[in-house]
Structure formats: structure tokens, C-alpha cells
Amino acid sequence: MSALQQAPAPAGQGPAGFRSSPPAGARARRRRSTALRLATAAFAVVVLFAVDVLLGTYTVTIPDFLRILGGADIPGASFIVLENKLPRAVIGLLIGVAFGVSGAVFQTMLRNPLASPDIIGISYGASASAVAAIVLFGAAGAAVSLSALVGAMVVAAAIYLISRRGGVAGYRLILVGIGFAAVMHALVSFLITRTDLRTASEAVLWLNGSLNSSNWDRVAVLVASILVLLPAAVILSRSLQGLELGDDAAAGLGVRVEASRLGLMSTAVALAAVATAAAGPVASIAFLSGPIARRLLGNRPSLAMAGLVGAVIVLAADFVAANLIDGTSLPVGVVTGVLGAPFLLWLLATANRRGQGG
Predict the structure, then answer these.
(1) pLDDT tens-digit profile of 176-220?
(2) Domain count, the chain
(3) What is the pLDDT of residues 124-179, one digit of tens each?
(4) Staple partner for 135: which of 31, 82, 182, 195, CB 3.0–4.6 Å?
(5) Spatial distance between the Cα atoms of 285 and 95, rounded to a whole number of angstroms
(6) Where are the alpha helices (DSSP H) in 111-215?
(7) Which of 285, 276, 275, 241 is nearest to 260 (CA)?
(8) In a domain, 322, yes or no
(9) Do the Cβ atoms of 312 and 41 come closer than 8 Å?
(10) Is the whole model's pTM more than 0.90, yes or no?
């Protein structure tokens, strides 16, 4: 069986894919366990956020940090905290949540851990559009971010329209997306080879995904977008459990399959697009967060846990990227990209052992 085919129904489901109802005591214990694990993940996010802001090449004490937030002007420290470290950490937190939730929606809806925006071409669409804006029009700053947003949306719409013949099947959408990813990657390579060295270096820096240029303007746009998109994802996720059982079972449960899928896809694409527009296509976050969150919760999907896991990965990777080499702040995507390849190999190896691989 191909690794791209849909996985069998998760444990705890009957032969038709319907979940059996556990006893009330078991449900209560499971809720407590889930709440405890979510609280632990949230605590890890808070700790890593504080580490990113307070530690590193320039260390700030907690009392000084609180004084700065209270309006005190500490020479050197105030500027570094308010204009560099704090917006960088806030954007890292927000894009981690956005990528994590986006990836989890795709993977749960299509029942395949490979179905994340950075695998099926959506991030590549954003990259190709942004690089085209940089190389062909000399765009910078907000114009590059807007181009990335438009590119992700256009490629996602094209993938959906091409793969929806006879109803969108998960494996078909993934294969179409991988094809788009290959085309977009080739376009990016062509554009970079046809421009001068300075412009090419700017494009490559953006492609690696970086928090180095974080500022409060980007924070404001990202916060406004996520305040709209996250509640939409939560509301639409009510149909995810049905879609995870397959189209026929979902329709039998009263789920409007095509409408629900389109709404979920649109929201997930928008989350990935605004995160990419803010920091570039930070590699592997959407791909890693969902499966890790599932394992932390005993093979149960959770958008909240996926968002927290995404935030943990980005904040930890950014601290490593900023402090790994003295005097150099690496793009965060370099570190997260290193995590993605071994995780993919491990995912395929474990799928093969369970009889789900090729």
C-alpha cells in the first residue's frame, strides 16, 4: 500500500470507522489527561518565550524587563527588548500557532500526515510569488508579504479545483499538491538563476524563513489576522471528526462534506499564508506539529495542542538559530528544516512497520 494512501481508522473505532463511546469514568480521565498535557505544553511555550526574550547574546534580568514594560528607559536594553527581542518572540509564537493549526487541519481532514501546506505546494506557491516580486519588481517588506499571501491563495485554489473532480479525495489532492510544489520549486530556481547576486541573496534569505526582520507592524497584521482565523478554525473544526472517518461516514453523520472541506481548507490556507507572509516559509512546522500533537494525546487530533507544539518548535529553533554561532543570527527555517527530513523518514518507517507504508 502506498504511503500516500489514507490510513486506516484510528484505534478506538469500530469496523465502519465509528468511534465507540467509552464509559463516563474513562471520558473524565481522558479529559483530565488532555487538560494536563495541554497545560504542560502551554507552560513550555511560556518558558521558551521568556528564554527568547531574556537570554541570548544580550541578557536581560526579569526586574529590568518588567521595568522596561512599565515604561522605564534603560539605555541599550530598552531598544533591544522592545524593538528586537520582544517582536521577534511574539511573531515566532504566532507563526508557530498558525502553522501548527494549519497543518493539523489538513492532516486530520485528509487523513494523511503528509498533507501539510509545506508538502502539498501551498508554501511553495507563496515562495514563488514572493521571489517573483523580489526578482522581477524589486519588491521589499510589505509588498513581499502581500505577494506571498496572494501566491499561497492562488495555488491553493488551483490545487483544490484540479483535484475536486468527482469529489476531493485526500490522496488526489496530495498528489496534485506535490506536482504544484515541483513546478513552483522549479520556477523559484529559474528566477534566482536569472537575477543578480544581491537580489538572489535577498530571495534566498526570505526562502529560508527568518524572524530577523520582525517588527511591531508585522505583529499587528499577524495578530489581527489570527484573531479572525483561529476562531473560524475552531468553529469549522466541529466537522473534522466526521471528515476524519471518510466522506461517506461523514455524510451519514449529517456533515456537509464539500462545504465543510472547502471552509476548513480556506481557513487553513489563510493561516499558513499569513504566517508565511510574516516570516517566510519556515520549513516543516506545519508538517511536524500535527503528528507530534497526536502522539502527545494518544493518537487523538487536537488543534490546540498542534498550535502549542508549533509555537514550541519555532521558539526553541529561533533561540538555537540566534545563538548557535557567535555574531551570526541564522534564519529559523535552517534549524526547523533540519528537523523535517529525519521526522519524515521516521514517519515513513513507522508507517511501514504498521502496514501503512509502501
Answers:
(1) 999 999 999 999 999 999 889 888 888 888 888 889 888 999 999
(2) 1
(3) 899 999 999 999 988 877 888 889 889 999 999 998 888 876 555 667 888 899 99
(4) 195
(5) 9
(6) 122-137, 142-163, 170-193, 197-207
(7) 241
(8) yes
(9) yes
(10) no
- Considering the domain boundaries, does residue 82 fall inside one? yes
For residue 256, the enclosing domain spans: 31-353
Q: Is the dihedral of CA 287, 288, 293, 294 positive or negative?
A: positive
In degrees, to the nearest 5, what angle opens at C-alpha 166 toward C-alphas 162 and 265?
A: 55
Question: 275 is written with which cell numbers?
Answer: 504566517
Closest CA to 265 of 152, 114, 126: 152
pLDDT of amino acid 88: 95
Residue 32's H or E segment, with its range, is helix 24-54
Q: Residue 81: what pLDDT?
A: 93
Please answer whether residues 295 and 55 qualify as being in contact, where contact means their C-beta atoms are separated by less than 8 angstroms. no
pLDDT of 295 over the 50 cut: yes
Whole-angstrom distance, CA of residue 175 vs CA of residue 262:
18
Closest by CA position to 349, among listed 113, 121, 104? 113
Grid cell locating 211 = 524572524
Cell numbers at residue 37, please? 498535557
Is-contact 187 178, C-beta < 8 A? no
Q: In which residue are the cell numbers 543570527 written?
A: 329
